[in-house]
Every structure is written in C-alpha cells, then in structure tokens.
Design goal:
This protein is an alpha/beta fold. Helices cover 58% and strands 11% of the residues. The protein has 11 helices and 5 strands, in the order H-E-H-E-H-H-H-H-H-E-H-E-H-H-E-H. Strands 2-3-1-4-5 form a 5-stranded parallel beta sheet, with helices on both faces.
C-alpha cells in the first residue's frame, strides 16, 4: 500500500481507466488499487453483457443496459415508434444515475474503469485519467486468454465492444473516449507491461497529490 498517496490528502486518489477491448484494464487497475490500498471499481457492463447484444434473455438480466440501448436507438433500440421526449428522459436518468455512482466511488478513492469517469471527474483534484490501448491482435489474444475463449470469439467481441462502448459515451456524454485529449496518460500495453503500466500510473498520481 502506498500510504503517501492513500492517506496524505483529504481527497483520496482516484484513477479512471478507459480501455480498448483487451488492453488489460482489469489487471492494471487491480494492481494500482492494490498498491494504493483502495477499491477497484469494475466496468458497469461486462464483455458478456455487450456480446449478448439485444438478446432478450441477456437484457432481462441487465435492465440498465437495455435502457442504454433504447436511449442509443438506431441498431440498438430501433427508430420506429420511438418517443423523443421519452428518449431524452432516459438519457437524463442514465447520465444522472451514472454521475452519482461515479462520484460516490470517487469518495472512496481507488480505480474506476469505464463509466465516463474522465469526463465526470475532469476537474477533480488528485485524479489521473488513463487510456489503455494496444495493437488489435495483441488485445484479442489477451482477451481470449483472460476469458478462456477462442481468438475468433474474442475478435468478434473486439469489433462489437469497441464500437458499443464508444457510442455509449458519444450518445450519453458527447465525447469520443478513444481520443487522447482528456487523458493524462495513454499507455500501449502491447509495448508496456502490466507492472510498468501500474508503476507509471502510481507515479503520475504522486504529481497530483499535493
């Protein structure tokens, strides 16, 4: 545990991570959280959730994802018969609920994966925003190993998940999380090891913890 970071300030340190599919956010994030002695907050929707698409059985188990797809419309929620006022209400409720959840997580400190944390906590002190990326092939192979699935299945997940997560952010928060401008660190995990990535993030936090 890095006591200098976890206990020296009134605001606990926070790291937000957005990853392109398979770039190692869980491994890197858990290592950072462990070093800080603070919580790890996983993504709201798993790869399995997103892989399920608009499958009714899957969405029945995740009502929030079903609402997100409805608000996104198009290929996700359809256009026919959509009520504009209802769609705007859905978006407002989703954003408000997510903002509240992210701020509650930030009060605990630690690592927050996804959830548009880089936008919501953009002005928060003692916070570092990270984008994890890597070559497509490396990311697919890593994801297949971690999930215990074939590379062919991981490749299908990569195409869908990278598109869906980016579109969620664009529709609900008006930003493209794949662009680097909102991040303090952009780390290529095809070239940088998990341990080195965690070191870089913790070191960056030290410069913000004053």
């Amino acid at each position: 545990m890095d006591t200098d970071l976890a206990g020296a300030t009134s605001a606990k340190p926070v790291v937000t991570i957005f990853e392109q599919y398979g770039a190692g956010a869980t491994d890197v994030g858990r290592k950072v959280a462990e070093r800080l002695g603070l919580p790890f907050h996983a993504q709201a929707f798993t790869s399995e959730d997103i892989e399920g698409g608009d499958d009714d059985a899957r969405l029945d188990q995740n009502a929030t994802l079903a609402t997100v797809y409805a608000a996104m419309g198009g290929a996700y929620g359809g256009f026919e018969g959509r009520d504009v006022v209802e769609t705007q209400r859905q978006k407002y409720d989703l954003v408000s609920g997510n903002n509240r959840a992210v701020r509650e997580m930030a009060e605990q400190g630690g690592v927050i994966v996804g959830r548009n944390g880089a936008v919501i906590l953009a002005e928060r002190p003692h916070t570092v925003h990270v984008l994890l990326t890597g070559s497509t092939n490396d990311r697919i192979e890593r994801a297949a190993r971690e999930a215990g699935i074939t590379t062919e299945r991981a490749a299908r997940r990569q195409v869908r998940e990278d598109a869906v997560r980016a579109e969620m952010s664009e529709v609900l928060y008006g930003w493209d999380p794949r662009l680097p401008d909102r991040y303090d660190l952009v780390i290529n995990t095809s070239r940088i090891t998990v341990d080195a990535a965690a070191d870089a993030i913790v070191n960056a936090l030290r410069t913000t913890s004053r």
